[in-house]
Structures are given as structure tokens and as C-alpha cells.
Amino acid sequence: MSNHTNLAALRNLMNNHQISAYIIPSSDPHQGEYVAHYWKGRAWISGFTGSAGTAAVTMKEAGVWTDSRYFIQGEEELKGSGFDLYKVYNQDSPQYIDWIIENLDAGDTVACDGRLFSKRQLASFEKKLTKNNLKLDATLDLIAEIWGDRPSLPQDPIFELEITYAGESRSSKLKRIRSQMKDQGADYHLVSTLDDIAWIFNIRGKDVQYNPVAYSYALITHEAATLFIDIAKVPTNLIDLFEMENIDLKPYDNIWKALNEIPVEKSILVDNATISYALARAINTRNIIDKTLPSIGMKALKNEVEIQHFRNVMIKDGVALTRFYIWLENNIHLEPSEYDLVQKIAEFRSLQQGYQSESFGAIVGYKGNGAIVHYSPSAEKSAKIKPTGVLLIDSGGQYLDGTTDITRTITLGQPSNEEKDAYTRVLKGNIALDRAVFPEGTLGVQLDTLARFSLWEKHLNFLHGTGHGVGFFLNVHEGPQGFHPGVASKSKNSIEEHMVTTNEPGYYASGKFGIRIENCLLTVKSGNSDSGKFLKFETLTLFPIDTALIALEIMSPQEIEWLNKYHVKVYEKLSPFLDDSEKTWLNKKCEAV
Q1: What is the pLDDT of residue 91?
Q2: 227 forms bridges with which residues in the sheet?
Q3: How far is CA 46 from CA 151, 372, 376, in A?
Q4: pLDDT (0 to 100) of residue 488
Q5: How far is the C-alpha of 136 from the C-alpha of 10, rounded, in Å?
Q6: 3-state secondary structure of 242
Q7: Among the residues of 84-190, which ranges form H helices?
Q8: Using an 8 Å Cβ cutoff, are 218 and 200 in contact?
Q9: Is 70 exceeded by the pLDDT of residue 92?
Q10: What residues contact residue 380 under an 8 Å CB cut-off, 6+ apart?
């Protein structure tokens, strides 16, 4: 069906249910950013395919609210769809709720599927709606009633991430979680976020594209743990291991019954920011302890085994990218498309040992397409690459021994002064953040400013965050930390030792070019003084930065020294795995400036 037909069908159902507004988010029942195709109802109803955004529909109007990463993409994909684009500049503010309030009358009902919103989200919505004499019905999955060819839920088996990669056993992780449960006075602990479950139980899956997770829930007590999952997806060897470790297996949907059967006098530790509104209502006891999941902070601090694997996987990734960029230079006369490059990057990575998949859909933006922050070329709609202009490539891989995320912007011809100035200021911001030395307890929002200062000097800026946490063979976007301006929740977390976080400032000239330079950083000790413990960063990512785009006259001696030392490191780490011609290419790219 077309988007207009879908929208008409939804409004017909809304009328039957006496609903005045319906909200469709981009999440699944586990509040995931990336979701299985089964849960992509917002994309299906509106035609907007970005990973973040919320649709709201009334009987007369319809809109999609998304952030700056998708402004250009949203405008293009929503043309003629019946949905208007609404630009969100503060991601923590649900502007569509204000829009709904403005467009409804007192006594009207707003509906949604309560499985797709967190308890905290809907509690705040309900408070605001009630204040404006509107009612909330969070029990309706109207999309299911009209999506006739809806994809089925994934059925791929899970597998164990061996301790040689994980660095810590399930038993040890559960022991640490139970210790925090005891501190909080909790008898039970519910985990519904898929990457936390994967981390706790040292399992990985293929249910969500790019994220090696499996749809499941976990309920932990002081004596045992239960994993709620489609048991047909669990291999026999894991069933046996779980049984020996007092981990029970029950069908995925049995979580509702299990929560309803918790004795009323018992207490349960949940995270209202991650548990769905609907699931929270299934909990029998009202003795609920609302705290951030213990596993979120635990998995953010990589252990020594994970850290060493991260260092090794960056070498493999750098070797794959070296071979890709050599291929690009040798084949640019054939004018490959952006989509061709997406396929080739994945192909070169797939030749590396332990490779599993991309860590997200590669962003390959040529010239003006590079200004679309989360641009995703398709086979049908993709620019041809020519030996002129600027090319931005943001890509990453999932390996058994780590997750990578790297962006490089290169010139394919003679760059303009505007391109060079913007590129150099982005590079200066990347270097400033990389070189930071800061006291323990420093927040992401404080460090974020370093990456923007050189751009701000010319009244330039970028509207996305400067960096996000990275999982270990898990979600490429991982909390709780990040470099972010303003009041975004991740900006309020401190950057701690053993965290891996991206450093990716950018600048985007609409219709002309996009620039972003991204490395992954590991937080390490810097030293102690009378002022306390200080931290700094180790650059994990290993691949040359294009020096042909640099305006050296605005680079400081310290920045040039950093760049030259980085390139020495890149060559030293990657060259042992390259043949002579590849070494020659890499050596030229790493020449001192």
C-alpha cells in the first residue's frame, strides 16, 4: 500500500476506536534504537526510514519529528506522503505532545502501543495530557491491524560469546549485579534492554540488523536467573551450560505471567527509562525500585581483555579500509556509485578474521549528499563518484573481538578554500578533544565544547553530538556516556577510565559538502596530583587522515605534531599486515606535514 493508503487506513481505525490522535515511535518493546523489520511501523506508515523519529497522526494532520541528523533525509522521504517534517533541536523534549495538545479538543483521547514507550516517557506524557484535559490509551497496536504484509519476527539462533573475548563469565557478572540488588534492597531485577541481556549472559544474536542481540527478557533473583526467549533459538550446548549455571529458560512471552506472579511483598529493581510502559503495568508488586540498570555502567567500563581486543580489531579494520581506499583510487575512473562503495567496504571487512557484519548502515555521501548527516545510499538512488569534490564515508564493523566506527572525509580533486577551512576546523576540534587531559568526574558536556571551539570562531557549528559510547561486539551506540551539548541525558554522565567513546565533530554545507572526522577513544589514566586523579584518551582507530584538505596555516605546532605522531602510529600498526604496494600507498598517506 502507499503511504496515503496506509494513513487513510489508520485514520479509519482511529475513528472506529474513537481516537483523536495516534503516536508511532521508532522503537520496539525493548526501547531499542535499531529494531527488527517487524517493529518498523513508523517507517511503514510514513515512508521516513531514519533510525530516530516519532510520527503522530490526527484526523486532519500528520507529522514526523526527528533530529538534525535526518533533516534533509526527512524532507526528501516525506514529500507527498501526507506527513509533515518537524525539526527537533532538543532531543529530550517531546514536541509532538505539544503539537497534539494544540490540535485536539478537551476530552479527546490520544492512543499508542504502550510496549513501544518507556514507563518514564509515557508517565510524563500522561501527566501533560491530563493537565490539558486529554486522555491516554496505551493499549492499542493499530499498526498490527492494518499492516497486512508485516515481516515476521526473526528466528536466527543465538550463540555464546566465549570468555576469551568477553573477559568475564556470566557467573561473575550476575554476582556483581546481585551485589547491587542487595544494596538496593531488591528481591528481583528485570532487564529488558537487549544489549544488557547479551552482555550479562555472554550471548549474541542476529535479531536486529547491525546489533548482535536477540529478543529476550531477563529476570534475576539472588538465587537464580531466568532468560525469556524463543527456546528454539537456543542451541543445545548453551541449554546445558545455562542449566549448570542455574539459568532457567522460558518462552519469550512468559515474561508477562512471571511479572504478574511476583509476590506482592517482594521488591523488584527496574529502570523506568528502559522498561516499557506496558510491561511495567504487568508487575504485580508495587514495591518497585526505579534505578538505572546496574549493567549499563558495568558494560561501559571495558575489562582488560576487551580493551586488548579493541586494540587488535582496530588494526584489522584499518587494514580492510586501506585496501578499500586503494581500490577506490584505482577504480574511480569507472565512476562507481555511493552504493557500490557501501558494498565494497563491507566486502573488504568481511575478509578479516572474526568479522560478523557491519555495525551500522555505511554512510557514503558524495558532495552535497555528505551534508545529509545520516545519508544512506540505495541501489536505486545513489550518486556516481567522480575525481572531483569531497567524499564522506562513515562506516563500522562488528567482529567477535570488537566493534568499530570510523569516519573519514577525503578530497577527490582540488579542494576549495571553503572546504579546506571547514575541514581543518573540524580536524582541530577532533585533535583538541583527543588531546584533552581532565579531572576524574568531568562530564561529556564539558568536553564537548573542545570539539566545537575552532568552528565557533567562524560562527560555524554542527547540530549532532560529538561522540557516543561504543559496545564490545554490541551496539555501536552504547550508553551511558557521550560528548554532547546541552541537556541530553548522555552529556550529564562522566567520562570514566576504561570507556570507549567516539570523537566525531563535523560541518555540513547543505547542497555542497559534508565533513566529519571520527576516531574511537579509550579513556585511560593520565596521573595524580594534589588536585586528584586525571584522565586522558588513547586513540584506538587506525587510519590516515586526509592531509590534502588541511589548511596548514591555521594549524598550531601542537596540532601538527599530534597529526604526524598519529600517522607514525598508523603506519607502524598497519604496515606489518600489508604487501609492498599497500605499504607504499599507506606510507604516502602518512607522510609528515
Answers
A1: 60
A2: 218, 249
A3: 17, 19, 17
A4: 62
A5: 17
A6: helix
A7: 95-103, 119-131, 142-146, 163-166, 170-184
A8: yes
A9: no
A10: none
pLDDT computed for residue 286 by the predictor: 85
Rounded to whole angstroms, the Cα distance separating 26 from 400 reads 28
Report the distance separating Cα 77 and Cα 73, nearest Å.
6
Pairing of strands 203-204, 225-228: unpaired
Contact (Cβ atoms closer than 8 angstroms) between residue 421 and residue 185: no
**Whole-number Å distance between alpha carbons of 76 and 88:** 17
The answer to whether 80 and 48 are in contact (CB under 8 A) is no
CA pair distance 169, 161, nearest whole angstrom: 10
State how far the Cα of 65 lies from the Cα of 74, in Å rounded to an integer. 9
Q: Which helix (H) or strand (E) holds 330?
A: helix 304-331
218 touches 258 (CB < 8 A): no
Q: How far apart are CA 262 and CA 268, in angstroms?
A: 9
Res 336 pLDDT > 90 = yes
Q: Give the cell for residue 89.
A: 533541536
84 three-state secondary structure:
strand
Where do the H-state alpha helices sit in 136-267?
Answer: 142-146, 163-166, 170-184, 194-201, 236-244, 255-260
Interacting residues of 131 by C-beta distance below 8 A, sequence separation 6+ = none
DSSP state letters, 512-531: TEEEE-BEEEEEEEEEEETT
Give just the sign of the alpha carbon dihedral 296, 298, 301, 303: negative
Q: Contact 100/19 with Cβ under 8 angstroms?
A: no
Write down how long the chain is.
Answer: 593
Question: What's the pLDDT score for residue 252?
Answer: 97
Residue 215 carries which side chain, given as an amino acid letter? Y
Can you say whether the dihedral through the CA atoms of 529, 535, 536, 540 is positive or negative?
Answer: positive
From CA 398, how far away is CA 405, in angstroms rounded?
9
- 78-102: string of b/e by CB count within 10 Å (b at 16+)? beebbbebbebeebeebbbbebbbe
d(CA 493, CA 477): 15
Residue type, 125: F
Give buried/exposed letters for 305-332 (b at 16+ CB in 10 A, else e).
bbbebbbebbbbbbbbbbbbbbbbeeee
Which amino acid is located at 506 in the chain?
Answer: G
Model pLDDT for residues 52-70, shown as the tens digit of each residue: 899 999 999 999 999 878 8
Per the confidence metrics, is the pTM higher than 0.90? yes
pLDDT of residue 565: 98
Q: Which three cell numbers stand for residue 474?
A: 554490541
